[in-house]
Write a structure and sequence with these properties.
Blueprint (H helix, E strand, L loop, with lengths): L2 H19 L6 H7 L1 H7 L8 H13 L15 E5 L5 H10 L6 H11 L8 E5 L5 H7 L8 E4 L6 H11 L5 H10 L4 H4 L16 E4 L5 H15 L2 H9 L4 H14 L6 H13 L7 H8 L41 H8 L8 E4 L7 E4 L2 H6 L4
Antiparallel strand pairs: 1-2, 3-4, 5-6
Helix pairs in contact: 1-4, 4-6, 5-6, 6-7, 8-9, 9-11, 12-16, 13-14, 13-16, 14-16
Length: 379
Amino acid sequence: MPTARRSRVWSCLALLLASVLCGLLAGAALIVITIPDHVVELGNPDPALAPIERTALAAYLMLRRHALDQPAGSAGEPIDFEVTSGESAAAVLHRMQSLEIVDEPLLLQAYLRYLGIDRTIQAGHYTLSGGMTLRDLATTLQHASLPAIVLTVPEGWRIEQIAEALADAQTPFSAAQFLEAVRIGSYSASLLAEIPDPTNLEGFLFPDTYHLTQNSQASELVATMLETFDQRVDPELRAAYAQQGLSLYQAVTLASIVEREAVVPDERPLIASVFLNRLAQGMKLDADPTVQYALGRQADGAWWKTALTLEDLQLDSPHNTYLYAGLPPSPIASPGLSALRAVAFPEASPYLYFRAACDGSGQHAFAETFEQQLLNACP
């Protein structure tokens, strides 16, 4: 809630309470003089409060002071609660009420407002429960528990790139330990049953942002990435793959190629349709990223060679889709949800070819025939 609006709300409440209590309280001074112990019990009020608002809040909180030390809600189990940056106190308390952490959010809001700490709730993670008192909650919300380590895995990375990013993220385990954990293959039985070689998880380590601690282990990260994949690739997507005549593994393999081919996100469903059309006709995919994957790391440290030569296209590798028809034997990178959905729901098209447009936009020119493909070549 904006500060000005919040102030008006509390000012109106203050006027109402002040009117009701005017026969009992003659102002803030009378509160302090008459019942100093209770005022001390509430804590020091926010000096920015107007006197009449401070009086009304103090009176209300004194009437409800015993409730401040009772369990705040009915949620018995600890809950991981996240406050996002810029989220208002009112929004935070509303979500706490929906999770049954707080039964009386207005009382907690009044307490926060009285102390002036409604403006200092920190963004981050908290462990909260309904067994905490309102005072405990007010104090806890001032000290967020932030993840010690944040690892972001972009779409289109191969496993080795993920491993190399661990050093920059300062994870407690090394790239070698991560690669070893990937090869172990002792993770979700339901998912691994759909992977021909459970020691090769390429394509199934879902690209996302992961929060780690200094006690995290490499195997825990791998398990979390696989679980995230299992959650994101829901039954709707799996059913759509089956309608395309693709197993989950084949769909992920194709999605990884679409991920690496597409520069403009909106083109992914159309690129997916080209590859599906070629597969249906028994044509080779002729996909550059599969050759780049087979070439591996370059002398300059890059994992994806940008300018392929005719010699590169003759590389004898089962991943080289210029030489071998059908899908490569494994995914070549971790596809994001957009690429995965593009394979599940491709755009209907007659196209069998595409090449990069000549304007440098990252878009592609599509063609139905090889002759049209040649005409789309840059001058």
